[in-house]
Fold Piwi-like protein 1.
Amino acid sequence: MSTPGRGRGRGRVPKSPQQIEDESAQSMDNLQRAGAPIVSGGLSVVSHPPEELTMDQLAERYADAESSQEVEARREIGMMQITTPDTSAEIPPAASTGRGRFRGRGASIPTAQTVEVGGGHGKPVGSLASPTVSTTQGQFDDTTDVPLGRKQVDPQTVTSGSQNEAETVRKTEKSWSTGAAAAAGAAASTIANPASTSTKRSKVPEADLPTITRIGAKGTKIEVATNYIRLSVAEGLPGVVEYHVSYSEPLESVGLRRKSLRQFEHVLGHVRSFDGMILFLPFILDEDVTVLHGLHPVESTELTVHITFVKVKAMRDAVPFFNILLRRIMVELKFVELRNEFYDLELVQILDKHRLQIWPGMSVTAEDQEAGLMINVDTCSRVLRTDTLYDYYMSVKADPKMKQKFNDFVINKIVLTKYNNTTYRIDDVAWDMTPESEFEHKNGPMTFKNYLKMQYNQTVQFMNQPMLISKLKPRKNERMRGETTQRMAALVPEFCHLTGLTEDQRANFKVMTDLAESTRLTPQQREAGLNKFIARVMGSERVKEMLAEWNLVIDTKIIHVEGRKIDGPQLLFNRRSNAVKVGPDFSREAGLGVCDPVEVKKYVLICTQRDSDKARRFIEVYKQVTGPLGIKMMQLGEIVPLRGYQPHDFRSALEKLNKNETQFVVIIMPMQRDDVYGAIKKFCVSDFAIPSQCIISKTLGNEKRLRSIVLKIALQINCKLGGSLWALKMPLVHAIQFCISL
C-alpha cells in the first residue's frame, strides 16, 4: 500500500519548507565542525574519500524499496549518479539541495548547471558542467566561463588545489567516458574535451533479423522470376554511416549549415548527404567526435563544428536514403519523373490513327524484405493524347455557349506540359488573360509568351487563347513556416496535353485493343524489360560510380525463387449440381446458374425519354437470362421516363418511388457524369436505402453483345439483393464444440 504523498518522491513523506531549512542549517554546521571549506553558491570540496557503496545499497538509495522490479531496473542507472572509486572525484555534501537526481532516499548529489553546446537548430546536443577551472583559486568558480570548442584547458595551469584534482583532469582528458558520470571535481576536463560526455558506440551495423522460410508441400515445383533486384553493401565496407552535426553558433538556415560544411571537404569528402542536422557518410571517421574549426559562412568569424558518430545504419533502416539515391540514378539514365514514376521518352509509341501516345516507364523503389534489401522494379505506362486543349477550344469557339462548354470540359482535368514534363490539375479558366498578359517576375513585369521563350525556348503561336489556372501545392519549407499564400500557375492551352482517355475512346473496342497490345505485357516481356534495365544500369559508368561511392552493389540478374503450381478450388455454382474445379477465370461457369438466387418481385427502371426503347429491350433480355440462372421473375420492371438528365431530375424520380414495394432500381444514364452518378448513389445508399444498378446508355446499344451484358448485370443485381453466385467447400480440420448452460 502506498504511503501518503507518494509520487515522484518514491514513497517519502513530503517535507515542509521549515524542515528543509532546518536540515540544511544542520548540514552546514556539520561541515564547519569537520573543517570543510565553504565557497559561494553552496559548493564545497571535502577532503575525505568517497563513500564505499555496494550494489545493493546503491540500488536501494535510488529506487523504491516497495518495488523489487525497480531495484533491478535502477542498478545500472544508479551507478551513473555517484562517483565511483576509480574516478575519485570529491562528492559535495547534500547541504546544497535536499533532493537527489531521482529524488530518492539518502544523500544526494547537487545537479550541475548546463551549458549550451549548440545543436543543429541552435539547441544543445548535450549538457556540460558549467563551473570552470580557475587559475587562481584552485577551486571551482561558477562565474568564469570557458568558450566551448575554441580552446582547451591545459591541466598544467591548475596552480593550486589538491594534487588529486590535477590528476583527475589529466586522466579524463585522455579517456572517453565509459558509463560513470564525472562529478563536480571533473568539470574542467569535461569542458576541455566535449567528446568525453558521450559513450563509445559500436561501429558494427545491427544484425539483420533472421529469415523465416516457409515451404509448401502441395502442387508441382516451378521456377518463378520476380521483379526484384538484390541491393547489397560491398564486402568489408560499412555502407551508410550516420553522424550528428552541431555548431558552436546557431545557424537557422539549412543552406548556411550545408555551406559551412563545404569548407571541410578535405575531411568529409565530396560524397555525403546532409539535411542540416543528420549527416550520412560512406565511411567512418577516425574519431567518435570530430571537431572542425572554420569560418562562419556569413560573418567570417570563427566557427566550430562537432560531428558526432551515431551508428552504422543497417540496410533496413536506410530505405528512404536508398530511394533518394535510386531517383538520382534514374535521372542520370535520362528517365523523366512523373508522380514517382519514371518514363523513357526514347521509347514512346505513337498511335496516329487514335491520336494517342504511350509512354513506357517503370516505378523503382527500395524495399526491405526478409532476405535483405531489394529493388522493386514494376513496369507502368502513361497514355497521352496528341491533341491539345487549344484544339478543343477552337472546336467549340463558334458555339454560343462556348465559355460554359470549355469550362465544363477542362476544369478538374489533368494535363501535361511537355516543355517541363510536369502534370497540372486545371482549377479555373482566366478569360481575362492571354499569353500577352503580364505578371510580376523577379526581374520585373514580363509577359507569359516572353517567359516561355526565355525559360523553355517555347514560342506561342496563338495570342487569342485564354489562360488556364492551376493551384500548386505548398512547398515543404512553406508549410514549415506556416505560409498561407496560395501559389498558382498560368498555363497556355496550346502547350497542354490531356492525359488519359475520353469516354468515346474507352467505348471504342479497336482503341482498347491497340492499347492492350502495348500496355499489357506478358511475363516473358516483363522479364526481358527488367534485364534491359539492369544492362542499362551496368552500362553507365556514372551510375556505377554513384553506387560505388556509397559502397553499394547491384546484382546483374533478377531474383528467381521456387514456386508451386496448384489446382484451382472446387466451387459450387448450382446446388442441384456437383462442385466444379475452376481456374483463374470462371465467368463462363458462373453464367450457368447461381448458388443462392433471390427472386425478383418488383423493380423500377429510370431513364430519359430518348432511352425508353433501350429500357424496354433490357427488360425483355433480363427476363430471358434470369430463368437459366435459377432466378424467379415475379413481375416485369416499370419504366419511369425523364425529360432531363440533370442530377435533380434523377433525384426527383427516386423520391417518388414507394420504398416498401420497390425491391431495387435500375438507372440508364445517357452519358458518364460523376455528378449524376454521385447524386444517384448518395440518395440510394444514404437517404432511400435501396439497391441500385447504373448503366451507361451506350452499353446497351450493341445488340450482338446485349445478352452477355445483361447476364453480367443480372449476376450483379442478385449479389446486391443478398444472394450468392457460388460457394466454396471448406471442411473443418478440427471441430470446435460450444456448450451453453442455462
Notes: The chain is about 30% helix and 20% strand.
